[in-house]
# Entry
Amino acid sequence: MRQILVTSALPYANGPIHLGHMVEHIQTDIWVRAMKAQGHQVTYVCADDAHGTSIMLKAHENGISPEDHIAAVRDSHETDFAKFLIHYDNYYTTHSDENREFSELIYRRLSSAGHISTRDVEQLFDPEKQLFLADRFVKGECPKCAAENQYGDNCEVCGTTYNATELKNPYSTLSGAEPVLKTSKHYFFDLPEFSEFLQQWTRDEGRLQPSIANKLQEWFDAGLASWDISRDAPYFGFKIPDTPADEPDKYFYVWLDAPVGYMASFKNLCEQRRGSTDPAKPELNFDDYWLAENQHKTEVYHFIGKDIVYFHALFWPAMLSGSEFRTPTSVFAHGFLMVNGDKMSKSRGTFIKAKTFTEHLQPEYLRYYFASKLSDKVEDFNLDFDDFIQKVNSDLVGKVVNIASRSAGFINKKFDGVLSSNNAEPELLADITRTGDEIAAAYENREFSKAMRLIMQCADKANEYIDAKKPWSMAKVEGSEQDVQDVCTVAINIFRQLMVYLAPVLPELTDNAKAFLNIDDLSFASRHQLLLGHQINKFKPLMQRVEQSQIDAIIEASKESLESTEQPSPTSEQAAQAASSPSSSALLPSDSDSSDIDSVDYISIEDFAKVEMTVAKVMECNHIEGADKLLQFTLDVGEDKPRNVFSGIRKFYEPKDLQGKKVICITNLAPRKMKFGVSEGMILSSGDPKTGLTVITLPEACQVGDKLG
# Structure
């Protein structure tokens, strides 16, 4: 029996769980369940990544402590994951005593071994907020093309990369103030010292996917840079120990203590199980999994997105090796999720929160669809809702569940629920049993799509068998009762085998199938056991078809509202923090997109030409009770009746400021149903939604209803 520890990347504690997160956690959970079903001792831990400037600022904005903020987010994360049947042995937080202790221990060991150095770093500082600004909190004019409102690391207009200190006319996106340059001492982990070790480690067989190992070679070729592991106060995180008493407080950068959270969550679980005699929750020894000398005794696997490979395949193993801990057995990366062929988009309703999905559909539908798409490759994949409906309805309802529903009625009605004692098709059942070996191997190798194809081939064989035997016709022939019972018994046994194979993907359906089959065991080994002369229970519908109306409801509920308070996705948030490190302007893989979820939806010039901009007069402008960001406009756009438009500018305008003004309204947008009514257009404004929006007003000479452009 293998002893295996498995982790998923830690969600950032600053926003809701969405379907992009679910790719990874569903993938991990399926793998864990499959390995457990094959008889291995597998432990699955995770945690919320709970530190960083963004969390500190969000908590301040909400008028609560960071501790209260991360506790509330953790509760919501655990609720969402539980609804998708993700079963962690422990879900913890990086803001814990265990994580502080391990972070300090690793730091001290690295420092004692000479792997930590310090140097002064010049950074932009917000004089109003009194904090150093990460690149994403600075905007200004591009030093090359002079494009305005560009972030502090690269220009979205000309593509130039630069340091935030090179921006012209910079301003803080937090306060609007002009930042000043300040010098601060920072602590660095000397990653280049581990270059030789890492080049060997990343090429060890099975350690990384080949495409990831090849990508990392680009960084080795360019030369590794020392990694800034410190941040200045104010910062929500752990203080760096042993710093000089006369220096300001320094904090561990979030990406140092985040992966240490894997160790901390596992340590916390070890303490929970100390002295356990429950075979389902065995006692665990921390040292068995994390001490360097036990490298080959146990196995440790990390499932991550491709955008954080740099941290998990370079920084993390170097930190572990330098501090006398074992390194991961393997790091498995996956690609990004697209929805209907594009990046997830709030405007199109395809930025879908986990909670929204579960309000309209069974989570197991998504678990199966993801499984049918996932492989061992680092490839982006698409959630196509037309394909989703077809695959779920055809495979799960039309093939798998249909086997049981077509056969159970005859067994219940004619044979009092008792299966035949005769195996009428030993070769067919043996063939499907043998296929289990190939399915088990596909699961272990993370070739889930292959496993699903093999399972559906087995389901096809069962349905072909039933169609060929036609028990419904047999039942009409006098004296054929035994044949009917035999045929339906074969079908029920194949259904049982399919449930064995699908159990890692569909645990809830499997439990319901156990109740129907009147059995307790659906482990991989149980597929060799046939149900003969066995009493089954009355069949109840196990799964309903997916309807288009359910998909429409999910998309409609997910469309961006001007009242939305969603935060950037955890992955993009962490990646943005990483990219802001003073030690390097390019910590992410060159082919990754740190804003892959909440990104700009680029359109062609032809699409832009379709936008209809019309001169409009503000007939009325009012506050909306219960709305913090919106103003409600009644606009004369030169049509038979005025238009109702909502605009998220309440923070910057009073209604009287715009009463009677002439503005620009986009009049060919589809009406948008919102919390406070239907918005029938959009008022043009410019600026930054955080620091100031200016409504574009027109001279009185402009005629209402005239088109612009």
About this structure: The first helix runs from residue 19 to 37. The two ends are 70 Å apart (CA to CA). Residues 561-601 have pLDDT under 50 and may be disordered.
